[in-house]
Amino acid sequence: MGLVAVHTGAGNFVNEDNYKILCKRSSKKACDLLDSGNGTVMDAVELAIKILEDNPNTNAGYGSNLSWEGRIECEAGIMDSITSNFGACTCVNDIKNPISLARKICDKQSSLFQFGRLPPMIVSSNGASVLAKEFGLEIINESELISRKALNTYNYYRRKITEYEQSNAIQVSRLDTVGALAIDDYGNVACGCSSGGILLKLPGRVGQTASFGAGCWSQKINNQSLGCVTTGNGEYIMKTLLAREICVNLIDNECPTTKLYQVFNDKFLKSPMLPRNQEKYAGCLVVDYNSDMKRGELLWAHTTKMLCLGYKASKQKSKFISSSLPDQSSAGHKVIVGGISF
To answer: Which residue in 5, 113, 152, 280 is deepest, having the highest Cβ count within 10 Å?
Structure first.
């Protein structure tokens, strides 16, 4: 048994069909790899996100949002429940698939570097490029990551700089951080995410994708496996350590759907760490699996108007879900939770 789930961000979307095809393809390819016995949950997550990164409709890898200065600054993170290792890279602009570097960094956490040096958990900018070359990853020119759509969007809103504050509510922008999670029959779970960051972000800005406990979380305690990937307002997600908070609160919980709703309300929307009376946008994918009973729940939640996701379980067809807030005027103030059993 295996399950892979992906999302293309919490926010708004223009063409649902684009995301439907992409989510189903990504989850199918990754789940097929897992089912073949030739790949681990980490391999499945890396493959799923590489497919998402290579698609110009997502804000990750190729086609990422451009910074204030018109530059590419991608980031990615991944976590493994088997080792509890986490690896991430940020502010990279010449690596074709940032998730692959994050994966290498995560794997290297299990051994020391030369001369007994501790391996890094998060690497940024030029240091990330140097490390990627050492790992033999594909290096490209920054221009190869800039899509025509991303450049046109940047130029349009750069010209309308006086209206910059309204850019967070753009109705025609790509969605946010992409993410994926995978779990196998033994309860091993991996989670990862990748992002180009917010449109017109300040140079050097780091989001939740590359932050430990915020963008993704994976853990296995006895027979219970938990994983979470998040998307949305990076600064708010980092302040609340949302991915870890969700998983910790689901430990030994009999009703994960209800608990996820409570966590989103109490630990995010009503968090004392965040400003009052302000929209708080976030979404997540969560897996809760019991390896003894061979049963689990795939859950999702979001305070944004929409969240696009796809998933595939072994011996089943890949499926797509477009989740929407019933009252879209309440976006940023209320959360909707959904889920399926597997």
So the answer is: 5
